[in-house]
Amino acid sequence: MSTYEPATSPTLYFIGVTTGKSSIMKVFPAWADFLGLKDAEIKGIDFKLHDDPAAYRKAVEFIRDDPMSMGALVTTHKIDLFHACRDMFDVIDPHALLMDETSCISKRDGKLICHAKDPISSGLSIDGFVGETYFADNNADLFSMGAGGSTIALTWHLMRKSRGRNVPSRIFVTNRSQHRLDEIKRIHEQVDFDVPVEYLLAERPEDNDKVLATLKPGSLVINATGLGKDAPGSPLTDAAVFPERAVIWDLNYRGELVFLDQARRQQTERSLRIEDGWTYFIHGWTQVIAEVFDVSIPTSGPSFDRISEIAIQAAGR
């Protein structure tokens, strides 16, 4: 989408890679009806991975200047878009400043606002499926493959001293490029934490296999690479062995999901708990919709359960 047509109704943009394949295209109209967002629409804007900064700036400029364009959710391009467009925002929220990323763009009182919603949505998702005392109870490690915005957000949520004993015993972050590891380490240095963290270059899936083999039983293992959705494959080889009683989380909920297939083959033998990215999808989108359209959306309870049911029905899950 290189030219932008002015929106004719209140419009939320979805900035990603393969936005047309996302369930949000079916879910958003049903949510908009439930939330009373009259005539609201959603439109996708697809960019290549690590696209030209000028392309990001053109999209943000359009959203800023078009009266009926309300804002955007940004996935995959969160860090690149922030670096390309930082000077265009009138307000940058504290999470976005810390994490050097844009996951949500909103407009309020004539100002263009940059938000990082992932620390909230990833935290809600993790605490939702492992419980709020999991790490204190299990002395488990955290291993996140991929050092992008999602890993920055979820490690921030889990590593802070304010969580007391409920932190991972060790954190491992791997990535195929060194500069992303340097960046997440720089961000972590601004967080008050005591957890040992290793930042490891993993240019091949075999490198991730080796880290996996060192983890404690019950560890949380996360595919935050985009592999299986934005690009084919998995960050692990088929020879990888998961820790016993590990919790396996793929941030993707659609695509080939090779990583989840690898885990499912060991699920019974290794007593694995397996989660896809569906709950993360719901929390991520509802946080952004609430911000962009200035509406209140609960994060738990009967209304949130109804929102989840609507999403499942609309997506045909």
General description of the model:
The chain is α/β, with parallel strands linked by helices and 317 residues long. The chain folds into 2 domains: 11-116 and 279-315, Rossmann fold, CATH 3.40.50.10860; 120-276, Rossmann fold. It has 12 helices and 12 strands. The strands form 2 sheets. Strands 2-1-3-5-6-4 form a 6-stranded mixed sheet, sandwiched between helices. β1, α1 (24-35) and β2 form a beta-alpha-beta unit. α5 (118-130) packs antiparallel against α11. The longest helix has 16 residues, at 278-293. The mean pLDDT is 95.
Give the structure's gist in a few sentences.
The chain is α/β, with parallel strands linked by helices and 317 residues long.
Mean pLDDT: 95
- In the predicted model, the low-confidence regions spanning at least 5 consecutive residues are none
Order of helices and strands: EHEHEHEHEEHHEHEHEHEEHEHH
Oligomerization status of the protein chains: single chain
The CATH H-level superfamily of the largest domain is NAD(P)-binding Rossmann-like Domain
Q: How many helical elements?
A: 12
Examine the secondary-structure arrangement and name the CATH architecture of the largest domain.
3-Layer(aba) Sandwich
Number of domains: 2
CATH class of the largest domain: Alpha Beta
The shape, in one word, is globular
Largest sheet: 6 strands, mixed
Structural class: alpha/beta
